[in-house]
Amino acid sequence: MTPPIIAPSILAADFANLQRDVEMVNRSEADWFHVDVMDGMFVPNISFGFPVLEAIRRHTTKPLDVHLMIVQPERYIAEFAEKGADHITVHYEACTHLHRVLTQIRQAGCQAGVALNMQTPVDVLADIADAFDQVLIMTINPGFGGQKLLPLSVPKVRKLRQLLQGAGSSALIGVDGGMDLSNTATLLDAGADYVVAGTSVFGSDDPIAAIHRLKSSRQPTMA
Ligand SMILES: O=C(CO)[C@@H](O)[C@H](O)COP(=O)(O)O
Ligand SMILES: [Fe+2]
């Protein structure tokens, strides 16, 4: 049974103690570091940009999984790659020419990811299934941490898994928003490969143990 990929989201960290929190993630079983960039246009919130990304890069030993919640992300792909992103995920809803943007991400030397908001059907990816390395299913409406997972996400992940299998794609499926121990096994069972978790990790009294529990949460399948 392959354990899931766990990507703690820095959005829920204590920014006054960023180095401490980054080093905690380094010591944990987390696989990636999820970095949410918000522009106040695509989503109704502003988070942070290049200086914070560079600061995390200086201290982390984990790949940086950058989630761009910004309009026209093609303007900034090269710079995010240069500043240390390993994976760059853009929103389907923010890209007029999604295929071109995904190609741009790969050409910049990064894994190319596409995120889908709740209302966007997975079928929009069917014709370009060889153009991305990961798909991020938003399990909340993006813009803020600390929200509750929307249950519609479960059949959506299942449908995406079928679509990718049918297309012969080995792209990873991620889930982002409201992920905690109460729902992770269900989403993994539906077909998710990676789990982004902010509040349930950084809001815990023992974040390293919380990451361990998420990492161990795949339910054994009954024989
Ligand atoms: O992209 C986003 C929010 O838009 C996420 O990555 C959040 O940072 C997840 O936080 P929690 O829901 O786990 O608190
Ligand atoms: Fe995110």
UniProtKB/TrEMBL annotation:
Enzyme class: isomerase
Binding site for a divalent metal cation: 34, 36, 67, 176
Keyword Cytoplasm: no
GO molecular function terms noted in the UniProt entry: D-ribulose-phosphate 3-epimerase activity; metal ion binding
One Gene Ontology term, aspect cellular component: cytoplasm
This enzyme's EC code(s): 5.1.3.1
Active site residues of this protein: 36, 176
Cofactor field: Co(2+); a divalent metal cation; Zn(2+); Fe(2+)
CDD domains in alphabetical order: RPE
GO biological process, one term: pentose catabolic process
Co-factor remark: Binds 1 divalent metal cation per subunit.
Alphabetical keyword list: Carbohydrate metabolism, Cobalt, Isomerase, Manganese, Metal-binding, Zinc
Pathway, per record: Carbohydrate degradation
UniProt keyword Chloroplast, yes or no: no
UniProt cross-references to InterPro entries, sorted A to Z: Aldolase_TIM, Ribul_P_3_epim, Ribul_P_3_epim-like, RibuloseP-bd_barrel
Binding site for substrate: 9, 67, 143-146, 176-178, 198-199
Catalytic activity: D-ribulose 5-phosphate = D-xylulose 5-phosphate
PANTHER family on file: RIBULOSE-5-PHOSPHATE-3-EPIMERASE
Protein family membership: Belongs to the ribulose-phosphate 3-epimerase family.
HAMAP family (UniProt xref): RPE
Free-text function comment from the UniProt entry: Catalyzes the reversible epimerization of D-ribulose 5-phosphate to D-xylulose 5-phosphate.
Protein name: Ribulose-phosphate 3-epimerase
Taxonomic source organism: Spirosoma montaniterrae
Lineage: Bacteria, Pseudomonadati, Bacteroidota, Cytophagia, Cytophagales
Gene it is expressed from: rpe
